[in-house]
Amino acid sequence: MDLEQEWRQSAVERYCGNAEVKVEKNYPLKRLLIVSLKDQKKFDSVNKCGAKFHSKSFLLVGAKNFSKIPSVSPNTIFLGMKVSKKLGIAVIRNKIKRRIRHAIQILSKNPKFPAGTTGIIIIPRKGFEKIIFTVLLDEFNKALSSLCR
Fold this sequence. Notes:
Layout: H1 3-16, E1 33-36, H2 40-49, E2 51-54, E3 58-64, E4 76-81, H3 90-107, E5 118-124, H4 133-148
Parallel strand pairs: 1-4, 4-5
Antiparallel strand pairs: 2-3, 3-5
Helix pairs in contact: 3-4
């Protein structure tokens, strides 16, 4: 097992608990379908029927069993990000978006992740790019577990 596979396996074990997920060379982890929210109408519909979670580094708005947008598969995550220019230049904003997408991909493997169609909007705050990724995963995990309640 190379270093990347070991890291992926340890991340899955940490955030998925006792779920039996094997990481093999030829068989990558199964991912949920992550679709981007692109227009303001979809953002507004998630905002209206979603619950808010405030954190030191971001604001998360999540709507569980979100069926306002037709989806291809029953397990779809509609992910929207509002990364303003106040957070920095384009390179930093793109890095923030990549970190958010990667964190959602990792946490979507958790069996406690909201099942069904989920709409999520994440609004990062200043200093988001400086946070260690494992701390960021813990904060996202808390936010998404509060969404499950």
